[in-house]
Amino acid sequence: MMRIILLSVLLQVIASCPAGFEHISGECRGNYTKLSTYYDLAESDAVAKCADINGLPIIIHNNEQQNYWTSRVAGNGAWTLLGLQCNSSSQWQWADGSSLDYKAPGHDSMLNGACSVGTFVVLRKDGFWSYYAASHSAWTTDLFCTVPVLHPTQSPDNCFAFADDVDFGLCYQVGAAAANWQDAQLICRKLGANLASIHNYQENTFVRRLGVSNGAMNGLFLGAALSGKGGSYGWIDGTPWDYQNFAPAFSWFPRDDFGDCIAMDTTSSTGGWMNIECTKKLPVACVREKGTYEEPVCNEKTYTEEGKLITSPGFPYTASLPCDFFFEVGHDQNVEVEMAFRGV
User: Fold this and answer.
1) In the chain, what are the domains?
2) What is the pTM of this model?
3) Gene3D superfamilies recorded for this chain (predicted)?
4) What is the mean pLDDT of the chain?
């Protein structure tokens, strides 16, 4: 059986949609709630209600949006409110301030000229845009909203929510306790990182201080473990074993009768290391290189390698772009896919 791990990141605010919404063409679209209002207050109430989820009522600039929203209205009722407003110059504009640069093939002639405050426009289930002069009569309708998908901006230190060590161009994060050392590495991989490797005194001091400031008061996992029968240690990220901190206070470490994984003692100001059982539960120290954010792009690769680690485009900064993944195996084989999601 072919086994593949897919890593994706769900960044609340940055890339995730509200519950029940669909991610389409760079925005989240969905039926948010029932709006109980009055005809003459419908537009302003709709704008205020959609703002609860950082969204706006339906805005349509092209045929794709027109066809999509028509299909949604047809499945939910007779009509729904559009985000069209009459501005102070008696001109129609959308709730986001953009101009009325598109009209449905079927629309009320009143949309071709000046408008009056207190009027509103609905999208019918047949796609027609109907104009209404509002009265103060009660009205309840399904409220559909669009929420833009926001992309991360480049952080000044290029560490994107990780801590910058300044001197060595690396970014660190200390996370919650992992069930074991293997789980600790998976937690770091979900962040686009590895368990931390340490190569000098300054890095060791930085990680220890970061751990303490993040509540790791009783130790944390590092990315080192016994690498073979020779009793030598190695870093999981493949970097050289060119520094170690089995400090004088822990001169009896590493011990043959202890475990194969390395942890840092954060209770000591020296951040001394010790070998412990890999099944211990400890917070994790992760490290990754500084990065720059680029707009994600789907690739057309077909995956055939077993054990392949695949990340969503833009990982670990955003999952705003939906893509298809293709896995190819022999006719007598199955594919086992493990999905690992991260939310922050």
Assistant:
1) 2-10+293-343 (no CATH), 22-148 (3.10.100.10), 171-289 (3.10.100.10)
2) 0.50
3) Mannose-Binding Protein A, subunit A (3.10.100.10)
4) 81
